[in-house]
Amino acid sequence: MKLFYSNEERTVVQVELDEGETLGNFTGPVVMFVPNDPANREFADIQEKQHDIEDYQAPATPKTESL
Predict the structure, then answer these.
(1) How far are the Cα atoms of 14, 38, 67 from residue 32, in angstroms, in the given order?
(2) Which of 21, 19, 16 is nearest to 4 (CA)?
(3) What are the extents of the domains in the chain?
(4) For the chain, counts of helices (H) and of strands (E)
(5) pLDDT one-digit tens code per residue, 2-30
(6) Is the dihedral of CA 39, 5, 46, 25 positive or negative?
(7) Checking CA distances to 19, which of 2, 12, 26, 66 falls within 20 to 30 Å?
(8) Which residues contact 1 (CB under 8 A, 6 or more apart)?
C-alpha cells in the first residue's frame, strides 16, 4: 500500500493498493484519490489504522533545450 498527498495543500491522498490489500470499501489492485475528510470511509480507515502518508512531491519538470 502506498499513500501520498497528491497536492501541496494536503487535501487529497493518492492511494495505491496491491492485489488483496484493502482500504475502506476497496480491495486492490486499485489506484484511487481519497479526500482528506473524516466523513470519507477510506480516509477514516487511514486515520484509524494510523497509516503513514508521504508528503507531496511535485512532478519533475522536463528540461528544455536552447536553440
Answers:
(1) 6, 16, 41
(2) 16
(3) 2-48
(4) 1, 5
(5) 999 999 999 999 999 999 999 999 999 99
(6) positive
(7) 12
(8) 15, 16, 17, 18, 21, 23, 28, 51
- Using alpha carbons, list the distances in angstroms from residue 33 to 36, 66, 67: 10, 37, 40
Q: CA-CA distance, 29 to 40, in Å (whole number)?
A: 20
**Mean predicted lDDT score pLDDT of the chain:** 93
pTM of the model as a whole: 0.83
Partners of 7 in beta bridges: none
Question: Which cell numbers hold the place of 42?
Answer: 477510506
How many angstroms separate the CA atoms of 12 and 56, rounded?
A: 10
